[in-house]
Write the structure tokens for this entry.
Amino acid sequence: MKLTGNTILSTMNKTLALIFSFIVLSSLMMLTVKPADAQTVTTPSVLQFTVKIIDNSHDVPPTQTTDQYTGVTTTQPGYHVDNRTIEVSIKNQPFTPHTNASGNKISLFYWIEFKGHFGDDTDWRIFGYNWPLVPSESEYTIMSATISAYSGNYIPAEASVDCRVKAVTGQ
């Protein structure tokens, strides 16, 4: 087989075209491969939590005092101290804060809501005062709030209460 100038040129063109195609395809593949150091977005899983009512209510008995100068005895009536709290304990789940494509730090937060058992879905209220609730560094995050009379979270002692806890991610 005799090679002419045109045959060599044709062979070189085919080889260059093959090399060029290989480079282009390699570049396209590099664009679709996820970088090794990119963080994966984690989705919160179903939470494990417990809710308990702590009742430190007590009765203060009536007191009598006698004035040392007049001998008059005064009686102060007894009274009841309503001192109840709800404690919500959430088992923390693994979550690594990360930065999204816009440069915002994405973290995990908890939302705790409650409503009267006989209420409807529009009656859910945020529980406590510190929102959003940031998970603690320990195994559990514990939130408690007063539910006694004169508190923003007042719940009657004989009430039935529904509680829900949500894990959300955001900034």
Summary: The longest strand covers residues 105-116. The longest helix spans residues 5-32.
